[in-house]
Specification:
The chain is an alpha/beta fold and about 120 residues long. The protein has a single domain, classed as Response regulator (Rossmann fold). Helices cover about 45% and strands about 20% of the residues. The radius of gyration is 13 Å and the shape is globular. It starts with a strand and ends with a helix.
């Protein structure tokens, strides 16, 4: 089964790098959707079948923690795995993401192996 993945990050460059890394993994990747912040991500989630969300924490408009709270608070998306990908060094924010229901996190910079390992362990 091909995985449909949403990549959420306010940096176009990071989104493009992450998409390239996803394509380099041995995972069966279907469609990859993009969003610049949590608000755009919610629109994508509402309108597309997804298997996974990879989201930055620090973004304008709605950050990754707000997005995570919205998804985990809605029965339609409660079981959709969300992995935080961040430069965030604060254990407080990472801990908050885990408490909100994040399936884990990956620190930037990341490798294709780290992405494949994390996603493979979830699905």
């Amino acid at each position: 089964m091909a995985l449909n993945i949403l990549v959420v990050d306010d940096s176009t460059a990071i989104r493009k790098i992450l998409i390239r890394v996803l394509r380099q993994t041995a995972l069966a990747i279907g469609e990859i959707f993009e969003a610049r912040d949590g608000l755009e991500a919610l629109d994508v989630v509402r309108n597309n079948p997804l298997n996974l969300v990879l989201s930055d924490i620090n973004m304008p408009n709605m950050d990754g923690l707000g997005l995570l709270a919205e998804l985990k608070g809605d029965d339609r998306w409660r079981n959709l795995p969300v992995v935080m990908i961040t430069t965030e060094g604060s254990e407080d924010k990472v801990g908050q993401a885990i408490r909100l229901g994040s399936a884990g996190y990956i620190r930037k910079p990341f490798t294709a192996e780290q992405i494949q390992e994390k996603i493979g362990s979830l699905l």
